[in-house]
Specification:
Blueprint (H helix, E strand, L loop, with lengths): L2 E2 L5 H15 L8 E6 L2 E6 L2 E5 L12 H11 L13 E5 L5 H9 L2 E5 L3 H11 L5 E4 L2 E2 L4 E7 L15 E8 L1 H7 L5 E6 L5 H6 L8 E6 L6
Parallel strand pairs: 1-2, 5-6, 5-11, 6-7, 8-10, 11-12
Antiparallel strand pairs: 2-3, 3-4, 9-10
Helix pairs in contact: 2-3
Length: about 230
């Protein structure tokens, strides 16, 4: 297990060492992993899977392994409880981040459209879903209206958002509603709309429009951003 990233905080190095010790003891399901520098930011090696991330700090999501991380996402977004996915299902993942949920969809053979507006995270998303069938990725920003919108990129802290929290680099991007996005991409039915938009979830819901009757389940990741 290694952390070959220049400037990696000492606290994180110590946590990685602790992770290595826990894995050696098979303590509470912890597994061996490594974190190394990469042109995209960092690459986390766990259970034979290479996960690309804009920030090395994302390694903490994989303490108990790759499959455990996907299991966690299934629970969080109600897969198996509120929605059963299969090869005939279509998932719209707004705020797809590094693309983990595409691998959840792949477990069931479902089609998934991954939408990620942050350019640095999008590059990681593209690398992480390479080779997966049924996955379409979109460098797009979803909003309540079709317009130009300021977007603040803060991938290191996973806080990229249309709302400035004083830590993001501002870029201007074209924004579209869910209704327009679906029309542009010939999406007629959504079985699961998964959304993690760092506080912009209400506006995204406003823009669903005529697609509302064609969505089976909506799952939102909500927090204290607003």
């Amino acid at each position: 297990m290694a952390a070959a990233i220049e400037g990696f905080p000492l606290k994180q190095k110590l946590k990685l060492l602790r992770q290595s010790a826990y894995a050696a003891l098979s303590y509470r399901g912890h597994v061996p992993l490594s974190v190394n520098a990469d042109p995209l930011g960092a690459v986390i090696e766990v259970d034979g899977v290479s996960v690309y991330a804009p920030s090395a700090l994302r390694w903490k999501l994989y303490k108990k392994g790759w499959s455990a991380r996907l299991d966690q996402l299934e629970r969080e977004y109600g897969v198996g409880r509120h929605i059963s996915l299969n090869k005939d299902c279509t998932v719209l993942d707004i705020g797809a981040n590094a693309g983990e949920f595409a691998h959840v969809a792949a477990r069931y053979g479902a089609r998934i459209h991954c939408v990620e507006p942050d350019p640095k995270i999008f590059a990681c998303l593209k690398a992480n879903v390479s080779g997966l069938s049924g996955v379409t990725i979109h460098d797009a920003l979803i909003w309540k209206e079709n317009t130009e919108l300021g977007f603040f990129s803060a991938p290191d802290t996973a806080d990229s958002s249309v709302f400035d929290e004083g830590q993001g680099e501002k870029v201007t991007k074209p924004a579209v509603t869910v209704e327009r996005f679906c029309a542009d991409n010939a999406i007629e039915q959504i079985d699961l709309l998964k959304c993690d938009a760092e506080g912009a979830e209400p506006e995204i819901l406003e823009g669903i429009g005529a697609m509302f009757p064609h969505i089976r389940v909506i799952a939102l990741d909500t927090g204290a951003e607003r």
